[in-house]
Amino acid sequence: KLDELDIKATFFLCGIGIDDRKEDSKEIVKREHCIGNHSYSHKRMIGVSYNFCKDEIEKTNALIREIGYEKEIYFRAPYFKKLFALPLYLN
Length: 91
Hints:
- There is one protein chain.
- The protein is of the alpha/beta class.
- 42% of the residues lie in helices and 11% in strands.
- The protein is built from four helices and three strands; from the N terminus they run βααβαβα.
- The protein has a three-stranded parallel beta sheet.
- Strand 2, helix 3 (50-66) and strand 3 form a beta-alpha-beta unit.
- The radius of gyration is 14 Å and the shape is elongated.
- The model has no long low-confidence stretch (mean pLDDT 92).
């Protein structure tokens, strides 16, 4: 439907979803939609370590690049929660 109406959208993808549905993810890139990072596993990022945040984000960024996305990658925290380690990593 988006193609029919010539509408571009932003899809915030989880890395695990990219791994599970690589061809569908590549199709989003092919259709020139924007892609954002929504973490790898979609686990809450409260009370987790700096390295957990780093791994979740960087692993997903790598997958987003692997499917051919070249634009800036924005990040949206799962459940909108971003306390302690996540803001530290994002800075």
